[in-house]
Design goal:
Protein name: 16S rRNA C967 or C1407 C5-methylase (RsmB/RsmF family)
Number of domains: 2
Pfam families: Methyltr_RsmB-F (PF01189), Methyltr_RsmF_N (PF17125), Methyltranf_PUA (PF13636)
CATH topology of the largest domain: Rossmann fold
Keywords: Cytoplasm, Methyltransferase, RNA-binding, S-adenosyl-L-methionine, Transferase
CATH superfamily of the largest domain: Vaccinia Virus protein VP39
InterPro entries: Methyltr_RsmF_N (IPR031341), MeTrfase_RsmB-F_NOP2_cat (IPR049560), MeTrfase_RsmB-F_NOP2_dom (IPR001678), Nol1_Nop2_Fmu_2 (IPR027391), RCMT (IPR023267), SAM-dependent_MTases_sf (IPR029063)
Strand content: 15-25%
Radius of gyration: 23 Å
Bound molecules: S-adenosylmethionine
GO molecular function: RNA binding; RNA methyltransferase activity
Structural class: alpha+beta
Helix content: 25-40%
Distance between the termini: 26 Å
Largest sheet: 10 strands, mixed
Length: about 450
């Protein structure tokens, strides 16, 4: 129940933006609760939600009847699905358009304003392990959450960075697609909580519009010629949406695309120059307020020199050879005893990024090889590429929740020593080490469930 009323100036502006009947239905829609929805991870095993109604523009998105307690569901911690607001999933549809225009070529995609990871994990699923997804977030605390969500999702071709948008201009032409899901005044989130309503002001919408222009122009050079910009906000006002895009088209050489969507999706087309944006109004779609547009860059960036410096061949320790399913697709590198695998095809791109950006995650961290021997990394357990070579211990949901709280499972004498993968409903959750008389729980401490679990539930 939200007590904070809708801001008066916001209502006055929307009254001018919508015709009278629409305005009344728009305002009424704010009395309804927001609709929970999830997007499934096609690389993991989660079937419970697929019985629900599908989000029309995303094959893996489903509207739920009520919001479950995600923290108490092991599949959520396994990255088997992501709770994502339905309107945002339209990104899938735009990626389909780009894929067609690019004749199915593998794409390098930058998600510039990435945390907590809704769009980045969607992009990762869309790419199916081909191409590259770089998920960036400038704010440190949020970047940590982004990293956690990306690791849980398990894509082998993802990089997480924590850099200012201007740092990406030092990688001219590196990306085929750039997603700017810009920080905004959040009018589309007014159904979700009081904070967005309280913090809204006309002045703040102007402040957001200026910041959005800066983000766009600072990072523009990282997009290649004929590359694609997907620009989105969760707000309704023209300053942060169509006016910003008109500004971009005046300042840079960019063309806006004409997007056609089926009428029964309930999406509103907003004319912009020769193309349009898509606006999601809560009285017309099943989802929150959202705006998105697709542009194509029509100018070349400064020339991008690929890093062709010879890489020294590395000798991969024997115990790391059988850890992943398709070892030949990857190059291996070691940093501070941690061995990682990275898609061979994008190793030069990774090296360029290492020079300009602050990297928090890249590819598949496999594990450390130190004095005590090999210790697998948690990210390996979550990866789509993790092989079946570790023995697996399948736990019940109650046991899995205890594991996720940091408790060790009970050992059976018949089990050999060494590392075991823990799974629940066939989704992997992490590692334990059997040291003979007990298991050591290797689930990352900072990700443990802290909520009290009622064993009678
Ligand atoms: C709308 S949210 C992104 C949501 C995310 N794309 C998703 O789908 O989960 C916008 C993000 O931009 C970040 N941000 C804030 N100021 C920024 C700036 N100056 N440059 C780039 N990103 C910024 C915020 O921290 C926030 O995480």
């Amino acid at each position: 129940m939200i007590n904070q009323p809708l801001p008066e100036d916001f209502l006055l502006r929307m009254q001018q933006q919508l015709d009278k009947d629409e305005f009344n239905s728009f305002v009424e829609s704010f009395a309804n609760d927001s609709l929970p929805s999830v997007r499934l991870n096609p690389a993991k095993k989660e079937e419970r939600f697929s019985q629900y109604e599908q989000v029309p523009w995303c094959p893996h998105g489903f509207y739920l009847k009520e919001k479950p307690v995600f923290t108490l569901d092991p599949a959520f911690h396994a990255g088997a699905y992501y709770p994502q607001e339905g309107s945002s999933m339209v990104l899938w549809h735009l990626l389909e358009i780009i894929e067609k225009e690019e004749n199915g070529r593998a794409l390098k995609v930058l998600d510039l304003c990435g945390a907590p990871g809704g769009k980045s994990t969607l992009i990762a699923s869309f790419l199916k392990g081909e191409g590259l997804v770089v998920a960036n977030e400038v704010i440190q605390s949020r970047a940590r959450i982004l990293r956690e969500n990306i690791i849980k999702w398990g894509a082998p071709n993802a990089v997480v960075t924590q850099s200012d948008p201007s740092a990406f201009a030092k990688l001219p032409g590196l990306f085929d697609v750039m997603v700017v899901d810009a920080p905004c005044s959040g009018e589309g989130m007014f159904r979700k909580g009081e904070v967005a309503r309280r913090e809204w002001s006309v002045e703040n919408t102007r402040h957001c519009a200026v910041r959005q222009r800066r983000i766009l122009s600072d990072s523009w050079d990282s997009l290649r010629e004929n590359g694609w910009l997907i620009y989105s906000t969760c707000t309704f006002n023209p300053e942060e949406n169509e006016e910003n895009l008109k500004w971009l088209m005046d300042e840079k050489r960019a063309e806006i695309m004409k997007l056609e969507v089926p009428d029964d999706w309930g999406i509103t087309s907003v004319e912009i120059s020769d193309g349009n944006g898509l606006a999601f109004y809560p009285h017309k779609v099943r989802g929150e307020g959202f705006f998105v547009a697709l542009l194509q860059k029509k100018e070349s960036p400064r020339s991008f020199k690929t890093n062709s410096a010879k890489r020294k061949p590395v000798k991969l320790p024997q115990e790391l050879r059988s850890l992943i399913r398709n070892p030949d697709r990857y190059t291996y590198f070691e940093r501070n005893e941690l061995w990682s695998a990275f898609p061979e095809k994008y190793m030069n791109a990774l090296q360029s990024m290492q020079k300009q950006l602050y990297l928090l995650h890249a590819g598949i961290p496999l594990g450390t090889v130190g004095r005590k021997g090999f210790v697998p990394d948690h990210a390996l357990a979550m990866s789509w590429e993790c092989s079946d070579n570790f023995p697996e211990l399948e736990l019940s949901e109650a046991e899995a929740l205890r594991y996720l709280k940091g408790e060790p499972p009970v050992t059976e004498e018949s089990l050999g020593r060494g590392f075991f993968l823990i799974s629940c409903n066939r989704n992997r959750l992490g590692f334990v080490k059997n040291v003979g008389n007990r298991f050591n729980n290797l689930y990352p401490k900072e990700w443990r469930i802290r909520m009290r679990i009622n064993e009678d539930d």
